[in-house]
Amino acid sequence: MENNYLNKVYDVSTSDSRELYASWATTYDQEVIENGYATPDRIAKALKEYVSDKSTLILDYGCGTGLSGLALQSVGFKNLDGLDVSKEMVRIAEKKSLYKSLKVFDPDTKIPIYSEQYKIITAIGVIGSGAAPLKVFDDLFSLLPPSGLFAFSFNDHTLGDPIYEEKVEHYVDSGRAAMLHKNYGSHLPKANLKSNIYILKKL
Ligand SMILES: C[S@@+](CC[C@H](N)C(=O)[O-])C[C@H]1O[C@@H](n2cnc3c(N)ncnc32)[C@H](O)[C@@H]1O
């Protein structure tokens, strides 16, 4: 299958990405699965090593069609909420019945959760090139309680711009976060892309 959207997504600015995901939604799962989408499983498997209570409610931020939720569920996390800015992507996720609460919001407004609502937030394939801006990193981290976990990924395109890794390093070096896990590995192997996955603990 031709990589219709994978060829386009990384050239799209974060402000235009909603249009792209609106038209990609119905073929997103097929295209990324055919390309071996591995980051959700890598994050889910890493996260389960740091969370003893698998019933902890997790916010799957930028849940899209639910592939990230599926990976979290497959390692035992059963209480998942999903949030995204694309109603078309969320419409596909709804059919999978993975999330207790599934909401769409306008990215020009505040993230519609209250402070310390979630002890664990994931942003899998969400922040960086072709999706959410780096500001989302600060916003999500600020919403966690002390000892809260933030599990996220940056793909090769995102890692090509040093501001993303510098942000993570700044949080760790300034004592705001502890790096529990960082690993570089497969993202979309058939499209020759890798990603870093991270788990940060809020200090
Ligand atoms: C590559 S998809 C990843 C979806 C899902 N997490 C997965 O692993 O398949 C990126 C998702 O981020 C969403 N997104 C883009 N900008 C966002 C923002 N500012 N806030 C929340 N989600 C955003 C898109 O709508 C899309 O569903």
Structure commentary:
The protein is α/β, with parallel strands linked by helices and 203 residues long. Helices cover 36% and strands 23% of the residues. The chain has a single domain, classed as Rossmann fold. The protein has a 7-stranded mixed sheet with strand order 3-2-1-4-5-7-6, sandwiched between helices. The termini are far apart. The chain binds S-adenosylmethionine (SAM). The site of S-adenosylmethionine has 19 residues, from helix 2 and helix 4.
What are the key terms here?
globular, binds S-adenosylmethionine, 7 strands, single chain, 203 residues, seven-stranded mixed β-sheet, Rossmann fold, alpha/beta
Strand content: 15-25%
> What would you report as the Rg, rounded to the nearest angstrom?
15 Å
Largest sheet descriptor: 7 strands, mixed
Helix content: 25-40%
CATH class designation: Alpha Beta
Gap between N and C termini, in Å? Answer: 45 Å
Shape, per Cα inertia axes: globular
